[in-house]
Amino acid sequence: xxxxxxxxxxxxxxxxxxxxxxxxxxxxxxxxxxxxxxxxxxxxxxxxxxxxxxxxxxxxxxxxxxxxxxxxxxxxxxxxxxxxxxxxxxxxxxxxxxxxxxxxxxxxxxxxxxxxxxxxxxxxxxxxxxxxxxxxxxxxxxxxxxxxxxxxxxxxxxxxxxxxxxxxxxxxxxxxxxxxxxxxxxxxxxxxxxxxxxxxxxxxxxxxxxxxxxxxxxxxxxxxxxxxxxxxxxxxxxxxxxxxxxxxxxxxxxxxxxxxxxxxxx
Length: 266
Ligand SMILES: C[S@@+](CC[C@H](N)C(=O)[O-])C[C@H]1O[C@@H](n2cnc3c(N)ncnc32)[C@H](O)[C@@H]1O
Fold this sequence. Notes:
Blueprint: H1 4-13, H2 23-34, E1 41-45, H3 51-59, E2 64-69, H4 72-84, E3 91-95, E4 109-115, H5 123-136, E5 137-150, H6 156-170, H7 182-192, E6 195-201, H8 214-232, H9 234-244, E7 257-265
Parallel strand pairs: 1-2, 1-4, 2-3, 4-5
Antiparallel strand pairs: 5-7, 6-7
Helix pairs in contact: 1-4, 1-9, 3-8, 8-9
Bound molecules: S-adenosylmethionine.
């Protein structure tokens, strides 16, 4: 059995970036949804190895970025990526306990974004994060999430069965059973006071622009160096195989989940 710590350690070991629905192209969609940036203060929750923070900092010279994560190994890799991409002075990182509380004052961020972190939480942690995001946002501030949610035709029994399996084998659920479907998110965001709530399924697309931005190029090189680690380090390779050899209890050919972009304002 693998624990959730092991899982994040394994992915951090080979500098895996964009570990979420639709990968880097999902991030480009999230950035489109965030819109034009100038001097905003921005928070990312669950930064992984920091690939999105680098993208934003490198494209927007005046924004202030703060990233938080629960995992020591992910934070370590994010620090290395940010340094390697020459953006050390632009981004502040902080470790958090991960129970849903955010160590920031009320009204302190114009934008909060999250990529595939909230739906993998226990319900009380998920609810706490959504309330805390509302609290730390400035008035009219915006939250944008990219979360993988269950398709509405997947029954709650199927959802529970897959989550029980994942919890037992990876120490983490696939996606929350009580917040399984987009409607559950819409209802709760409305209940706690968010406005202009919008949910959009992320369609596969090839929206990756070629970049001539030095920091983004360096960040891609950092990811590439991590992948070489898979070639040269047998323990990194073995750990990835451990994850990939677990067969999820999914029926072949059936689609269960989709990436959903969720945005709302305070
Ligand atoms: C699926 S990965 C996504 C990483 C990153 N957002 C990306 O898209 O590449 C989940 C990330 O969330 C972090 N994480 C998991 N549970 C968390 C929690 N309760 N609070 C904060 N971060 C958490 C993990 O350490 C990991 O870095």
